[in-house]
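Format notes (please read before filing issues)

Several people have asked whether sequences and structure tokens are stored in separate files. They are not. Every record keeps both together, in the order shown below: the sequence lines, then the token lines. Line labels are part of the format and must not be stripped during preprocessing.
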Amino acid sequence: MSRVMEFVRLIRKEVSVTDQPDLWKVGQGILLECDGEKWLAEIVMTSKNGVSLMIGFNGTIHGHLNNMPVTYHGKGIYRSIIDGTEVRVKPLPKDIFK
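Then the structure lines:
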């Protein structure tokens, strides 16, 4: 089994039935938090159950250029399936552009 598949299997094993991710919509604007920094981002792709997301943004975050494929890790935390970078995905605040 490849390292990536083993990583994804371990992540999915840790997600409990009671701790399910929010359901996001393609095109939805989000606030992405990583290492204390906040980024405006967008949901590019999502699985039906919300466990897997492709997040798009402008810039580089931990070597991810313009996008990051993530899997839900529990307690509001997603992790990159490439290198395990931990991020939090939150809806944009209603007053962000005021």
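For reference, the curators noted about this record: The chain is about 10% helix and 50% strand. Residues 3-91 form one domain.
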